[in-house]
Design brief:
The complex is a heterodimer of chains A (549) and B (207). Chain A is mainly alpha-helical and 549 residues long. Chain A has a single domain (36-548), classed as Cytochrome c oxidase-like, subunit I domain (Cytochrome C Oxidase, Chain A, Up-down Bundle), CATH 1.20.210.10. Helix content of chain A is 66%, strand content 1%. Chain A has helices at 28-32, 37-65, 76-95, 98-111, 120-142, 158-161, 166-193, 206-238, 251-285, 292-305, 321-349, 358-381, 383-389, 393-423, 429-456, 470-500, 542-548, and strands at 425-426, 502-503. Chain A is globular, with a radius of gyration of 23 Å. By secondary structure, chain B is mostly helical. Chain B has a single domain, classed as Cytochrome c oxidase, subunit III, four-helix bundle (Four Helix Bundle (Hemerythrin (Met), subunit A)), CATH 1.20.120. Chain B has helices at 3-8, 16-47, 49-56, 61-86, 90-120, 128-131, 135-170, 180-205. The radius of gyration of chain B is 20 Å and the shape is elongated. The termini of chain B are far apart. The relative contact order of chain B is 0.16. The chains are: A mainly alpha (549), B mainly alpha (207). At the A-B interface, helix 7 and helix 8 of A face helix 1, helix 2 and helix 7 of B.
Chain lengths: 549, 207
Amino acid sequence: MDNSSGVLPVEQVKKSFYQESTNKYTGIGAWLLTKDHKRIGLMYMYAIISFFVVGAIIGLLMRLELLSPGGKLFSAQTYNSLFTLHGVIMIFLFIIPGIPAIFGNFFLPIQIGARDVAFPRLNLLSWYVYITGAILALTSLFLPGGPIDTGWTFYIPYSVRSGTNVSLALFAAFVLGFSSILTGINFVTTVHRLRGKGMTFFKMPLFVWATYATAWIQIIATPVIAITILLVIIERAFGVGIFDPALGGDPILFQHLFWIYSHPAVYIMILPAMGVVSEIIPTFSRRTIFGYKQIAYSSLAIAFIGYLVWGHHMFSSGQSDLSNMIFSLLTFLVALPSGVKIFNWVATMYKGSIDPQPPFLWVMSFIVLFSIGGLTGLVLGSLATDIHLTDTYFVVAHFHYVMFGGTGTIFIAAMHYWFPKMFGKMYNIKCANVAVVLYFIGFNMLYFPKFIMGYMGMPRRYYNYLPMYTPYQRISTYGSWILVGTIFFIIGYFVYAYYRGKKATSNPWGGVTLEWHIQSPPIMENFETLPVITHDPYDFSQLKEMKNE
Amino acid sequence: MSDHENVLDHKVHRDDVGAKMGMWLFLFTEVLLFGGMFLIYAVYRYQYPEQFHIAAMELNTNIGTLNTIILLTSSLTVALSIAALQKGNKLLSMIMLGTTIVLAVLFLVNKFFEWSTKFAHGIYPGSSILTSKPNGQILFFGLYYVMTGLHAIHVIIGMVILAFMLNFIKRNKVTTDNYVKLENSGLYWHLVDLIWIFLFPLFYLIQ
């Protein structure tokens, strides 16, 4: 083993989970039929990152179309399909399952001191259901009828009348929802039943708290979209009157039901990311988290209030003024628990001994991007300004700052944080530092001009635009090149590290949650003997004992 | 070591409390799934009270009542099947489970005749008779077909699950001291019953 680099050698006490199969198969069968939560997490990872790349390339093509006015690259119809696919793939295949299915699967059982999730077989089934849904979604692109062109919101009545493969794509979303529900049930039961000895609820790491809150939203909200989607499919297939106004139905009712799920769904997307932030900041500040209980409770508060604000997507759809005002008020209330988190994170860093490693830098760029996204959300939550800005690029910019700048950035941060633990290899720190800077520049170039264009009146989902927007659209497209280039760069150095990287120690960052107490990569069933938890989750006085171990 | 510690340490791969917790969570999602439709029903009933009233008169309350009795009885037999197995009476448990499946078939047969009569009268989605009716009635029958249809699909899934349980009991995979699978299947069956208890008054009785 090459030890000249200063990276400590790792004593491989036992075979890692890569070298031991949970079943009688070896090779690919050991993966495809595994019940090990770590292997399932990794299988999710490969699938989800592939879809993310597809979604990003579609986004890149859309930006290319908008490089100059005139719409020469794609027809309007193709552009409609592109933005729909970009939305469907990014939301249902990447960002909803992203952090919980990969890092939740891999680290939730380890962090609570368990050997696996409560239902390992169901966990594998969830993966297959996810893949089935993904295949159905991709099949709908190539069948006669053409790719779906309704936008990812599937609004009635167009989604009943469109001749494209709406039913199949909707069914794919239904199947993916099923996978999401099963994972949620699994995680809630795991947290209740399999916490290790001494691991009380308030000794759980905050990532577990966040994933737990997310799992509840998955259970509570997803069935509503499932039935709504199913009804649209039935309406298309049999001409049953439910939502179609031609048959007496109410299209606004569809919007209500759609957002009853889809608004909580944005918290399914962001809460696990907030959990990851609460892991990374203490580790690199060498300081216990400020306001542990408040962060834990604020996750639950977000989960709860987030369920009651769906109407803010419908301010201009003709619901009553009273509903608008109530929904607007409730929307402002969600900002409170989110603000609690941001302030607690910043307070954690105060007087800490900060070690600016890549995961920490990614979290810093998250705090900036997510704050911009959050504050512009308040602009959209106020009734008067929303009327001016609704359905413009402003909404697109806000959404991407929150979702991509928030969850997407943290997804990459989590990769940087846990990569050494998952694969036992270390990536090139310098490359990672360069990537953060490029990412931050590319991101802001791509999305910030959209705030300005939105304010000037540029509507979203248009394949063409007036010449007055040209400079902003240009900057945005150049930004997309930098951003997507950086993403490929990141994937590149991770793949390089996977094959050629230096061996990582079992605790390269000096973290103290349970995953840093075990070897990298972990052994089958995680622990040789189950740990007994005596410390608080972010008690860094443990570090000394850990070094002596 | 206590039972729960053995579960934690993977010395036994069985956790009855956990299994039941998972099942209850799943049933919760089922309630929400139907809850979405009950919400739609409530909105449209509020919007078109008279037309819902007129349309509901077309439904046959007798068949609905008969089916309610059948399903309630089947809930009883499935509960008895669990009780019998707990007491170690394998044969009685299997008989009760078999009775439950027969009752479920009876329910579906009734449903079939009920639907086909409606079809014969020309009341089905997209028919010229139905589409010529006022909007409220179209919506009523749309909801009627979708909600009872989705419920019928749940009855069929429940039958398949119970048939598996029958087989498991026969092959001693579900036994007098390991019956959590049967209990969970029973819970599912009670849910199917429960949903019908709400569907029945909403479509057949409120007129």
